[in-house]
Design brief:
The protein is mainly beta. It is built from two helices and 60 strands.
Length: 697
């Protein structure tokens, strides 16, 4: 049975519209939308997004490609085509799959239109023919068929692709392989476009963030074209920012991406319909339309691609036009993490939108009442960049207020808290959350729609904290710990060493009273964690029973231990010396002086009985030269200790072997192998004074 497309009405038919009543205008608008008229229509139903509630941030909408199943789930093949009519008759088109005619249609549209024809599910290798059968000239008017592309939901092929050929002829001659030319979009004679169906090529996703100003209750029709292939066409009916996910071929730098607005109107119901494209996202690339990265080619149909009436790119399309973008190199090369929690309401969590310098980095639903991290790829940013965290679905259900708690925003060595100086809360829904008009001080818990807004600070995690810990493994996995300072997650690490090892992380300047927590998250039978301490600068916080969750103390490494030492260098490298006091690693130094020199370490007050370990860890030979460490003495303000003193021992070995008590000799100042000098600090023994009287010239 022959089927025709819905009618096509030229854009801005003002003389006609001026004589129509408003109900007729609204009905006509709906018909135009269904027909996909205005340059890029659809002879069947258009792929239209579900209309979201205007009061909340709409969820991501997945848009089907132009090739979709019919209403009865019959597989469909979409042919995008138009025709030159003769005697008011369009081009007759048949589709054959593996030699069997599956459907036919009259192409009567004079602008590119999607025609959906019944076909079996196409598989790679299927033989597909699109056949033009009624070429003629009537009263000097030539009938022609123009085919732009052929599509299924996951595959699209241009008529000019290398895999397409045009077999000219009528009837069987269109399939005889006798008069064959390369594939073409202009079929000026009877014949068949012939191809072997390829593997799916609409394998990636482009997300378009857009909204529409409606006219007559009808939103903007937007087509998405990638390198000449129309991959989607749908109505943007949301009046607030909405993400639309569109299947596209793999996008590479240099690809041509066009967003086509095709049903502009100022007449229907007194409304001025417009399309606003806020952003395009694909993997690690984002484009916010502006003059530097896009253009707007005004016009309908082919005129939107002719380069004649072109203005600089912008987010607003107020005329029929194509927003034209050359896809850039990946630009979301940084990242930012928002730590957030929420109080859900009605079973729905808080929706959070994160922006950096106007680019939307992502939208997330926060469901957890416990703080969790949400990490987004971001463009390069620096001090002074604008960061926004918006809450977009505030509401109360059964007396429970939905709440978004923003604990902080972090990237590398910089953290921004919502209560920091300069952070503002911009109250309002959708675009009003970014208008700087209803401002209050920043806060952690958001119960109304709006955005926390701030400029990115200079790097402020200028301190470093070291956690010393060890663990046992189970199933070859060690304990994984999260390290917090004042509620800020500094880092996550797996501890695979059964002997004490150090984890050093950047932190905000540590203050007395801040809570330091080392939180294991995967302890299990056979997998254990032992934390020794946390240390920063001249302060150490010791663990209790192998765990740490306590307030940061005041400075407590207030004494100075001086070690006088020298070394034999090998390969230009001196002896590496570690100093531990009561099992706290207070410092590491390379002894690279070949004559005695002083090496100073901040230590706790050195009262009698403290355990001191001096460890040599890089003994070796280079080109026959032996590296060695020599200790002359250790001293504080009122105490001195020789390495040969009674009770001092040298435990030879590396790592844990230097503390195992197996290969132990009397203390010595000459450390010619890896090992540790073990000693107990004596009582003050510098109890007298000596005066030296001297002069010099």
């Amino acid at each position: 049975m022959w089927r025709t497309s819905l009618f096509y009405v030229p854009h801005h038919p003002m003389p006609l519209l001026n004589h129509l009543s408003r109900p007729i205008l609204v009905a006509l608008a709906a018909a135009l939308t269904l027909a996909g008229c205005g340059g890029g229509g659809d002879a069947a139903s258009a792929s239209t997004s579900v209309v979201p509630p205007a009061a909340a941030e709409p969820a991501l909408r997945t848009i089907q490609s132009v090739g979709v199943a019919g209403a009865d789930a019959t597989p469909m093949l979409t042919v995008r085509a138009y025709a030159d009519l003769a005697a008011n008759v369009g081009a007759m088109v048949s589709v054959r799959v593996d030699g069997v005619v599956t459907d036919s249609i009259e192409v009567k549209a004079t602008q590119p239109t999607n025609y959906r024809l019944a076909a079996p599910n196409l598989k790679p290798g299927s033989k597909v023919d699109v056949v033009y059968t009624n070429d003629a000239t009537v009263n000097g008017v030539d009938r022609n068929l123009y085919v732009q592309q052929i599509s299924t939901p996951d595959t699209a092929v241009l008529s000019t692709a290398a895999i397409v050929s045009f077999d000219q002829g009528s009837g069987d001659a269109a399939f005889d392989g006798q008069n064959v030319v390369a594939g073409t979009s202009n079929l000026s004679s009877n014949g068949a476009l012939r191809l072997t169906w390829p593997v799916p090529n609409l394998t990636e996703t482009l997300t378009v963030r857009a909204y529409s100003a409606l006219a007559g209750g009808v939103g903007a029709m937007m087509g998405v074209v990638v390198d000449g292939i129309q991959v989607a066409q749908f109505e943007v009916k949301s009046t607030v920012a909405q993400d639309y996910a569109v299947a596209v071929p793999p996008l590479k730098p240099g690809a041509k991406v066009d967003l086509v607005y095709s049903n502009d109107s100022e007449a229907l119901a007194g409304g001025d319909r417009s399309l606003f494209v806020l952003q395009l996202n694909h993997k690690t690339t984002a484009v916010v339309p502006k003059p530097a990265n896009s253009t707007i080619d005004k016009g309908l149909g082919a005129a939107a691609f002719d380069g004649v009436n072109v203005v600089p790119g912008d987010t607003g399309l107020y005329w029929n036009a194509a927003l034209r973008v050359v896809w850039p190199e990946p630009n979301l090369t940084s990242s930012v993490t928002v730590r957030a929690s929420a109080q859900a309401a009605g079973g729905t969590g808080a929706t959070m939108v994160v922006r950096m310098d106007g680019t939307v980095l992502g939208t997330s639903t926060v469901n957890s009442t416990a703080p969790a991290d949400f990490t987004y790829p971001a463009p390069a940013y620096s001090t002074g960049s604008q960061v926004d965290v918006a809450f977009v679905n505030a509401g109360t259900v059964d007396g429970v207020a939905r709440t978004l708690n923003v604990h902080y925003v972090r990237s590398a060595n910089t953290v921004l808290r919502p209560t920091d100086t300069g952070v503002k809360f911009d109250a309002g829904a959708d675009r009003a959350a970014f208008d700087w008009t209803n401002l209050s001080a920043g806060l952690t818990s958001l119960t109304a729609n709006g955005a926390l807004r701030a400029t990115w600070p200079t790097a402020n995690m200028t301190d470093a904290i070291t956690v010393r810990a060890s663990g046992t493994l189970a199933d070859n996995v060690g304990p994984i710990v999260q390290i917090f300072a004042d509620g800020i997650l500094l880092g996550t690490s797996e501890i695979r060493s059964t002997s004490p090892t150090d984890i050093t992380l950047p932190a905000l300047p540590l203050k007395v009273g801040q809570i330091i927590e080392v939180r294991p998250i995967n302890l299990a039978t056979g997998r254990s964690l032992k934390v020794d301490y946390a240390m920063s600068g001249k302060t150490v916080l010791q663990a209790t029973a192998g765990s740490l969750n306590a307030a940061w103390p005041a400075l407590n490494l207030t004494d100075t231990l001086n070690i006088r030492a020298r070394a034999d260098l090998a390969g230009g490298t001196g002896a590496i010396m570690q100093v531990l006091v009561d099992n706290i690693l207070v410092g590491t130094a390379e002894v690279n002086s070949t004559v005695n020199a002083d090496y100073r370490f901040a230590v706790p007050p050195m009262s009698a009985g403290r355990k001191v370990d001096l460890v040599y860890i890089n003994d070796g030979q280079v080109n026959g030269v032996d590296r060695n460490l020599y200790i002359a003495y250790l001293t504080t303000a009122n105490t001195t200790l020789l390495p040969t003193a009674a009770g001092v021992t040298l435990d030879r070995g590396f790592g844990a072997a230097a503390f195992d008590g197996i290969d132990v000799v009397a203390g010595t100042g000459s450390m010619t192998t890896n090992g540790a000098l073990h000693m107990n600090w004596p009582a003050a023994n510098i109890t007298g004074t000596v005066t030296v009287r001297a002069s010099a010239t």
